[in-house]
Amino acid sequence: MTLLDTLNLTYPIVQAPMAGATTPELAATVSNFGGLGSLGSGMTAPNILTSQIDTIKSLTDRPFMINLMVLSEQDSTTFDTAIPAWLSEYYQDNNIEYALPERPALSFLDQLQVLYDNPVPVASFTFGIISAEQVQHLQGLGTRVIGTANHPLEAKAWADIGADAVCVQGVEAGGHRGGWLPQSESDPLGLLTLIGQTRACTDIPLIAAGGIMNGQAIKAVQTAGAELAQIGTAFLTTDKCGINDIYKQALLDASQDKRSSETRLTRLFSGKLARGLLNSYLSDFAQFESADKLPPYPQLNAMTKFMRAHASKNSDAEHLSLWAGQGVALVKQESTLELLERLVKAL
User: Which of 141, 204, 230, 245 has a CA 20 to 30 Å removed from the CA of 317?
Assistant: First the structure.
């Protein structure tokens, strides 16, 4: 049985679960069209997540996906590094008040409990791997389980614990990298190489992610050995997406030669490698980029949120995390349905 059949999809399109950018309306629109709509929920409080799942269920009777970030209890509760001097200085120079929260991130186990209590058709996971028992519990509730991998060994680890599929995320992908093994950082693989190497070590069904912006690219990753294509950046400039106007305009400007479309893998916003548009913040503080000079994720993420909130309030794209993949020059201002129709026309 193909993944298209397993997930009950009409088209081989997965809308990427971008935390902070996806909305129940976006997910439902994609699912109603025949793709797999998804909600990036790693930064969503359990009560709100429950409500959002109910909203999606009220908007579609088609399969949809909820994505969570796998963090240990220690990671999500501990601040054991000080705020960097350069960031503290930036806050002082710009009169930005900050007070670190009690904990740097929400409890993953509390979020996972929501999926136990309010089951969803598909659950995907990033930043780490869950246990075989957790996979089996979800599957027992009727939930398909999808892992995220930046390296073939990560994909194999998901296969070994019984996941239904793995999303292999090439170095071209925008936003945070989903892998957790050192190998995925030391030699980041391009998507086609990653698909080929993963196919050689496991036969688990694959979803390809990274720089996919049109129907031709979907066909290319299917030819390479993936069954479905996960698309993120292309959805960011559509009407159902939840990003603010400053972020959206920066992406459109990059597609219209009004700003550079260069993207960069960086730890400077969150402590974890993520790809976004180059802006002043990434240029000005590039000297602090190395992992040993930065607090880890999610600590740095909690520390920079005051800068990002201030930038958003002041329409300052130069200090926002403008997550985008290497295909950003191809984004268009269009409705979500127009994008979907354009994608399937080429299939």
Answer: 230
Residue 128 amino acid letter: G
Residue with the two structure tokens 């614990």 = 161
Which phi and psi angles does 84 have, rounded to 5°? -60, 145
Q: What is the pTM of this model?
A: 0.97
Cβ atoms within 10 A of the Cβ of 56, count?
Answer: 24
Q: Which pLDDT does position 290 carry in this prediction?
A: 84
Pairing of strands 274-277, 263-266: antiparallel
Q: What pLDDT sits at residue 297? A: 97
Q: Which residues 6+ apart lie within 8 Å of 48 measured at CB?
A: none
- Angle, helices 46-59/108-117, rounded to nearest 10 degrees: 40
226 Cβ contact partners less than 8 Å away, ≥ 6 residues apart: 168, 195, 206, 207, 208
- C-alpha 133, offset from chain centre: 24
- Determine the 3-state secondary structure of 255 from DSSP: helix
Q: What is the largest CA-CA distance in the chain?
A: 59
Q: Residue 187 above 90 pLDDT?
A: no
Indicate if the pLDDT at residue 77 is higher than 80: yes
Considering only CA atoms, which of 323, 271, 279, 278 is closest in space to residue 299?
271
Question: What pLDDT shows up at residue 293?
Answer: 85
Q: What is the model's pLDDT at position 200? A: 97
